[in-house]
Amino acid sequence: MKPSSRKKKDLVITERPRRNRRTSSIRSLVRETRLSPENLILPLFVVPGKNVQNPVDSMPGVFRFSRDRIVQEARRAFRLGIPGLALFPALPDSMKDKRAGEALNPKGLLQETVRALKDACPEMTVITDVAMDPYSSDGHDGLVRGGKIVNDETLDILAAMAVSQARAGADFVAPSDMMDGRVGALRRALDSAGHTDTGILAYSAKYASAFYGPFRDALDSAPRTGDKKTYQMDPANSREALREVQLDIQEGADIVMVKPALAYLDVIARVRAAVKVPVAAYQVSGEYAMLKAAAQKGWVREEDALMETLLSIRRAGAGIILTYAALQAAEILRR
Ligand code: PBG
Q1: CB of 284 closer than 6 angstroms to any ligand 1 atom
Q2: CA-283 nearest atom, ligand 1
Q3: Are the C-beta atoms of 257 and 281 separated by less than 8 Å?
């Protein structure tokens, strides 16, 4: 039978999902996932000095700011409805050593920045990173001895770092090191120093990923020898992510995180289904760089591609998304 001779009454389509897609307002009524600036956390790199705004080559639109400029960025983010910042210090090599000693300096770059931020914008949630790499002459997240990462001695250093950050006013400390037992060690140290209100956002399922390259450029924190595969997770594993998450929760994590995000959406979904605590995901530097590079070439439409990735991370189950594009996304969402 020729298509033209098919009679209308012969057509029996009982389900027409397209009805719910007919207009923009219908689409908005039936939308299952929402993204708002309130879901976003802006990571920021801080450097010593004044009025410094130093671009990160591999992350177009991202800068290393001095403390005064970070405060301005924080105010801007807060006005756009972004409730949190994650801070990473970028230190000169001369301040790095094997034991990340500078991390414990009560007047250190990170500590002073946290104080300035909490003074200027007390409502803004300030999250600090607990790992040795930005401070370590080895460029590793743990203490290196004889070419190995020494787990238990690292815990003492991480716990002292967390207490120092809490004392400066951090709302959450965020262990990104993947040592065993770190969340418990941090919780005990914080509590015994009286910081029972300081939260722990644990990088629970953090993979040994190729997508951290631009971040390591930004902080000049790449491992000087070897790689991070003896502590960060194997990208092939997802059951192991549940094990890591459960351990972190038992040890006292208030929020758990999956990192990176886009290549691990299945892990985010599994973790969301398995736990009751909030789940965060980190759209990491390489994910950001990939988007920007393709957009600069004119190969994808930047804003559409960015919002689609963020929405997909929400859809997978993350209520909190760390992204270098937080300001840009918040501006798009405000339109
Ligand atoms: C360090 C840390 C890394 C990131 C956050 N904290 C890098 C690493 O593990 O080597 C990566 C973030 C990003 O790529 O955006 N502990």
Answers
A1: yes
A2: 15
A3: yes
